[in-house]
Amino acid sequence: MLYDRSNTGQIILVTGAARSGKSEWAESLAQKSGKSVIYVATALENADDPEWQARLEKHRRRRPAQWQTLWVPYTLCNTLSEILPPHCLLIDSLGTWVANGLDQDEMTWEQTTTQLINSLTQARVDVILVGEETGWGVVPAYPLGRTFRDRLGHLIRQIGGIADEVYLVTGGYALNVSCLGEKLGTTFNN
Q1: Predicted TM-score (pTM) of this structure
Q2: d(CA 96, CA 144)
Q3: How does pLDDT run across 67-95, given as a tens digit for each residue?
Q4: Which residue in 31, 36, 44, 59 is the catalytic one?
Q5: Is 87 a catalytic residue?
Q6: CATH at 140
Q7: What is the domain count for the chain?
């Protein structure tokens, strides 16, 4: 499907493995935009999990103080439609957002992701999204793990198909794969 993006911002996808530096790279891109940055955290805070809270705090400390933070674990589409220029949205992370929606049945999930793609293509601000690459390891031995991996992989591919730039962060390097590779179609059989 082709989207008219003449009145919209830029879409940038930053993907990579755990601890690869993808969030740091996305933050540097947001900083370089020269725009007012709104950091969209998709995580759910959990006071009963000190290790998770420490991870969130590490991200918090790394961000510039003037960045606004929104906690949006579910309703990314609303946020994308509400924010107006001259902002830059940094959404971190798609994997956490997918995990938050694992209770949705397949039909509802497909509607959710379709709404997200449509919202991204209509966003009037630059949007930088951070997404994990999960499919490079073993196939999870349990159904929910496979659902997560498949949903996230499919979503990353869909967003990559509409993105202006796609970066893969690995081995201490951010590679602009949108310049190095050839874009595949955005639709495929699961």
Answers
A1: 0.91
A2: 14
A3: 999 999 999 999 999 999 999 999 999 99
A4: 59
A5: no
A6: 3.40.50.300
A7: 1
